[in-house]
Amino acid sequence: MKNQSSGATRTYVVCFGNTVVGYYSLAVGSIEHRFVAGSIKRNMPEPIPVMILARLAVDRRYAGQCIGTGMLRDALLRTLQAADIARIRAMLVHALSEQAASFYRRRGFTASLFDPLVLFLALDHVGIRLAGS
After folding, report:
1. All domains of the chain in start order, with CATH
2. Which residue numbers are catalytic?
């Protein structure tokens, strides 16, 4: 919450009644060209503006109910809004485990060139994909 109060991140919470069932945090960042695939870096400045999905967590009692997928969708919608202003090119996530990385890969993210647990999703076609879901 220190990052939230300092303005470094913005955190969004999902509640069921008075119970927190999940949350995610977003932060604006950047990454150098040498760490990403061609489609993300094409025609972009150095460094490339990205939205960092700093945290995404669901209470274990609510796992398997698509809450994580719903929060990711909300995070992508917010990122698309910010991208209109800040020219953000992709969402970046640091997965904490291979299981978490698999969650993101199933939703279109691809591994970075330097670490399989750092994944990217180019925003080019995200709006089209979200509109169709």
Report:
1. 2-131 (3.40.630.30)
2. 104
